[in-house]
Give the backbone structure.
Amino acid sequence: MPVNPATPPEAETALPPADTVPSTPEAPAAETTAPEVAPAPAAPAASPEASPKAPLSPPQNLTVHDVTNTSLTLKWSTPESAVDSGLDGYCVEYCKEGASEYVAANTELITSNLFVIKNQTTGDSLNVRVVAVRAGERSEPASLPNPITIREVPDHPRIRLPHLLRSRYIKQAGDQINLVIPFSGQPKPMITWTKNGQPLDVKKVNVRNSDKDSILFIRKAERDDSGTYQMTVKIDSLEDKATIVIQIVELPGPPTSVKLVDSWGFNAALEWTPPKDNGNTDITGYTVQKADKKTGEWFTVLEHFHRLNATISDLVMGNSYSFRVFSENVVGRSETAAVTKEVAKIQKTGTVYKPPHYKEHDFSEAPKFTASLSDRAATVGYTTRLLCAVRGSPKPKIEWMKNQMIIGDDPKFRQNSNLGVCSLEIRKPSSFDGGVYTCRAKNPYGEATVACKLEVKQVVVPTEEAKK
């Protein structure tokens, strides 16, 4: 039965006896829907002994929470007058555009402030309102200013591919793969996955789709899980695609063969061929080991070696050696190695090694300054330093002089000579420290000097008249 837009005053005054008041449901379903035409929920009658209360105000802030092609979701706030005095529930009513009467959307009062009007026809426009009910009293309705059209809000499909999946995704065999790919689009798009252009093998690869993302899950990756995976998000004729290249890698096999090419003196030359199985990734290098036949212990002589041949040196005379080679890739070193069939025998020659005699070069040299002193100007009270460079063999002795007088252990001066660089530090000089400074270097083969002029200036403080 249609519900009148406003309840007549007589209906509000004439209340039924107290024993006829229906009990309020403890947990009414907020999303329960009714047929197109349904009677308005009966408002509980007030008890004759109830004390008078302030008039019930309408619900506040009525807004549209969501719209789909078959439903309309409303949201509102509790009336101001019911915050302290309590409330029995709400009645949600709607009227299709062109009709004159409102229809109740809920058969029983609801206590939630969120309600979904379901089972609507796409394209219909609805005028909606919400009425608060308390002890047989109905508030003024809270209405939306404009009718709402039942339709899906279109949103183009978009895949937000994580950054780490935009390049080749590499995992080791036996690892778990769990890729979460977010997407967006309205209405809910259709998600499809392919591998190398073919449908996925559901026995090995699981796909879980939600409203916001799609998850590609492989419990235990194997090498044949490698390939190009493509995710397609489609809404009608609109679609978006993302391509993910997955590469499952494992340890490589050993080199196909390794042989001893030659041995001479303390050296042995080896050659080997790449492995047949590279572990589904590039070979990054080789590890070469040697073993003395006397001990049988293996020692690494080359690691991360990139060529397919090598010369092993520093072998011990009189010993015999075997060699083996491992392959390497990003996962690690091959579990087995290729071993030489031949043994390298380092023969004893019976000759005594006589090192050649070389005439010792005479490095003796008289001192020579390679960088001379430069004239400088210093400020009173500010430490300054004089620098020069000298060479000579044997190492020359350095002396500093001021105005041709040798500077001794005066604490005002600090002398230093390191790797041919000579420095004289003058600590907080005064105007009396100006003059000609000389650095002299001498050894048994001669001596050399350099000099410079140091001027120490007084700090000039500007007067007030100069500032003006």
Confidence is low (pLDDT under 50) at residues 1-38, 43-51. The longest strand covers residues 238-249.
